[in-house]
Predict the 3D structure of the following.
Amino acid sequence: MMEIPLFKIYWDNDDIDAMNKVIRKGNNWANGPEIQILEKKLAKYVNRRFAVTFNSGTSALHAVLSSYGIKNGDEIIVPSFSFISTANAVLFVGATPQFAEIEPRTFGLDVEDVKERINEKTKAIIPMHYGGCPCSNIKALREVAEDKDLILIEDAAESLGSKINNEMTGSFGNSAMFSFCQNKIITTGEGGIIVTDDDEIYKKLLLFRSHGRVDKTDYFSSTFGGEYFSLGYNFRIPTVLAALGITQLNKIKKIIQLRRNIAESYSRELSTNKFMKLPYCPPNYFHIYQMYTLEILDGKDIRDQLIKKLSDSNIASKIYFNPIHLTYFYKKIFGYKTGDYPITENISNSILSIPIYPALSNAEIEYITNTINEFFGEKK
């Protein structure tokens, strides 16, 4: 019986050689030139002026919210259907996350619900691009943000390389965050990056990630200690990981095509299964399939039985995402309860992500899809 994990990292000898090259230098492991090279390459890739790397996507979100001056008393509209860091980063700066519902096609923020939740305390909107597909309302959300003089920050953690026509995710908001965590399209194990066109925000991000310090030369090799202009953190990405990010980015076109090929195979083999919806991609959208997420039409009980069937068959699967507002922490702090966001909750109760990664073989795809189709055949 096959054993198929949810994901496998795609790597080659170029990744190993790039990391070894940094190690063999014997210096600049913390602040080497590879960091700026990665930032410039990625900024160019998504058509933004600036990019600043961080040690995680979470710290990148924390940094950008602080750089925009978000503070205690402010409210930020976020989806509850996301990884918890989307909301937690708001709490890090003392503000309050205001959850909004999602739309049922690409699982992006619902623009009409967002409008209803804007008040005098609202300072920003953070839409999330789910699973590698641009949020279908991203342009409408940009219009709302501009009309209400709000900041639009894209949580594009899962969508590096996706686009609408020729506009890349990460280029719609005032700023955007991408993640390099191990299950993303390209990875450095852990890591993140903020992209923006705003010179002032760019400078604040540089301060925030390195103790509020301005380094005219490399801090670690200079006899000058630097000057500190603001409160900052140690959120830097190591040079060796930046070098890995460069070689990963060099392969992104190939990686995306391999994932799209697998998604096409999945959709072909599952297209006649009337018990589920396959991932939706609007016309003129480019989906990179960071995840391949099914929507089980009969709901949570059948979905959970399918999870067990897949597990018994040694096939990993996962629910991305359970609602943030129903986590223990958010229920305890804010008093949220089941039923507060019914659309989000219903979608979360029906979805299931199955394995997708570039090395997934045709035999494994056939095994996974046969297992799913056989399960629903038993339910007829």
About this structure: The mean pLDDT is 96. Residues 252-270 form the longest helix (19 residues). The chain has 13 helices and 15 strands.
